[in-house]
Fold this protein.
Amino acid sequence: MKSVVAETRKPRPATQEQQPEQPPSGKARKISPCAYQTEDEIADYYRNATTGSVAVVRQTQGHMLVYAVTEVEGLNPRVGRVYIKQHGAFYMKSGKNCFHPKGQTTLVVPTEDVLKWAAEHPRGEFDYWTFPPERAVFRG
């Protein structure tokens, strides 16, 4: 007995110009203040940080964005780690969590915009892009 599997996925757009600007649901999202920070900027800030410097931990889950403003608790440049108070160890190079590098907790540079947003939204906010919208890939 043979079984046939039907392809149910829609084909992806071939070029960037054909990508939709918003998700297919039509819900508009705002851009987070850290969306355009590069890995190089994050690495530069945390490699030059000192104990007691301001640090910002970005946590995302279920379309929710939360910034935790805290401080650098320690540094270990030999192994490339920065220790953040109440949040553990992160890689200086990428800002990723050492124990969950593919997780949803990362470091960002504490810019004026990030600190202002964190003060205005102490419990976080829903529907924010955490990356530039032009990098978005929507799968239908």
